[in-house]
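[Primary structure, fold]
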Amino acid sequence: MKRGDQQYNALAERIGRLHLQQRLGIEQEHVKQIFGRGRNFFHIENWYSVHALMRLCFRLAGIYERGRHNAADIRVCENEVFIPDLPAGLDGFTILQLSDIHVDMSDAISRALNQRVTTVKYDLCVITGDFRARTYGSFDAVLQGMVKLKSALKGEVLGILGNHDFIEMVPGLEELGVRMLLNESALIEHNGEHLYVVGVDDTHYYQVDNLDKAASAIPAESITILLSHSPELYRQAAHSDINLMLSGHTHGGQVCLPGGFALTYNINAPRRMGRGVWRYHGLQGYTSVGSGTCVVDVRYNCPPEITLHRLRCGGQGG
């Protein structure tokens, strides 16, 4: 995507020239980078010789195939979110969260995800970033995989970019019917009531999130759901009248010790925010372990998931 291109101009008008310029510039610096900028000094996703070595180690240990089986055994998790003053028409409103789907990583995992989403009922689907496995290069395989996933999903689908995703993917994803939120918000109507979904650009590596801009058009005291690829935005969200923050990025550790103990969550946030339900002051949050895999297509002691968040009246949050 270059200055003057039709897609460049359309995105620049939509999200602002400076945001687009920053995103594209950092993307170019990030290509094939193993050591350097971002929240992390070491980017293992880009060191592909290490990926092969890890697969070899799992094979020699005799656990590789078990790990691949684990990675395709996608669970359905449910989370009830109690919100004071939730309008009666939104009681029971259900959000399906998919995260870190990495659709170009493994055909077996993608097939399992496509099948699993057809078994659940929901009112809205959100995808909290990392559509692809690699962090650079062609994303044709991602768009091809998304054709199949989108056909398995029902109703409206909203998405945000993760640290693996290039902004050049946005036009293709939106042509498939995935509405991408780039520091933007969407109004959702249901049973005569409405809520807002705010989506910020990647806060982990690119650090081009802008919650102020994304939520600027939302009336006070509205029911508001925030999509942020990483939970690292928790402080700002807690003081922004957000009712629920949905994140991913961590994979729950992906390869964990017995008992699900993760060696790292790769986030600049408290460890308790690395997976599942958490709270910070009045903010309710949930960090999905995701349905895909990164680096190697295995999981140990950390089952993949899709998540149903059901809004309920009452409780102490908000």
In short: The chain has a mean pLDDT of 92.
